[in-house]
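Protein in question filed below.

…
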Amino acid sequence: MGGAYNLKLLAALSALVLLLAASRPFLPGLLEAALRAPVLPRDLLPLLPWPVAQPLLRRLALRGAADLLPSFVGVAREPDDGGARAAEWKGACFYDNRAWMEFHNGTDGGLGGGTLHLETNKAHSWTCIDLYVFATPYRVTWDYYFVGREHTLDFKEWESEAEYEYVKRKGVSIFLMPSGTIGTLRALWDVFPLFTNTQWGENSNLAFLKKHMGATFEERPKPWVSELNVDDIHSGDFLVLSKIRGRWGGFETLEKWVTGAYAGHTAVCLRDSEGKLWVGESGHENEQGEDIIAILPWEEWWDFEVKKDDSNPQIALLPLHPDLRAKFNETAAWEYAKSMDGKPYGYHNMIFSWIDTISDNYPPPLDAHVVASVMTMWNKLQPEYAANMWKEALNKRLGTKLSAL
């Protein structure tokens, strides 16, 4: 029996030696894991069944939608003789991180590729994970890290010489999802229903505005649609709309959050020489599905908003003060409205109406790095939408003809 026991012990020791030899690259991380803090319950929530995790997610004191926004932590560059240092930062899980780039020569005249090295250390618990987004102006990718060690992210080949030169000069931008796995899941739960055209979506939009802006929409007594006397509406009177469900409702909710506005859409009333009432607005969808500037008869505009607009718009009519109405130049207003009728929606002003400096006017937690990264991602996912949202705006301001970001 003693011989059999010794044989088993020898086999176990041999297996342990082989295991340690095979796991040498991972050994520091495994040793570090033993020294981590105890398991944090919030780190385990993603592993629980959804019916169990959902109520717990709701009770966590997180920032909500802001957790979906990556936080810029540094740039991975190639070390050189000039003393370029590796980027260093504190993560959500690993408190000690550093990153640098390594370039690889191409074959057959190719540009080659590169490897981003990211070293993670000092995790705060056994179960936490850090999520990262890596971006250049030409690509976006992501990865997550659980073990404390040196990790690598391979760029097999640069997409173009422009990307190669960019990374050589400026490196690869690194963004941390600051709330980790649980925060990102919680943020998705906070944002997803905003865009659903349901009562759940409407309630979610109202709750989001109350939570993040302190804005409340008090339910008015019925009838919810006011009986307006059209004869009481004059040129220059202002229409303010707030949509709270569906695609436009979700978009306007986020727009209110980042701008601080309490309305997502506006229009103006105009009377012609015969006394007929019209509404001028930007963003009307024509028969081709294009968003344009349009002048619509009041009856057509009002009928659509009351009976056909499924975003459940809240509409306020704001008359001009009598003193201002007396100064309102109706002729000039009509001339301008007619000159703009049928032109594309003003995408080139949409973002830059509230981001009007290079780096000082972003609502927290946004910054210039995050905005540039989001532009890159969106340009890859929805190039036509990106062309509307910022290419036109950048071309207008830079006097250029950008075809890609």
Remarks:
- Confidence is low (pLDDT under 50) at residues 1-41, 44-48, 60-65.
- The chain has three domains: 46-187, 196-345, 348-405.
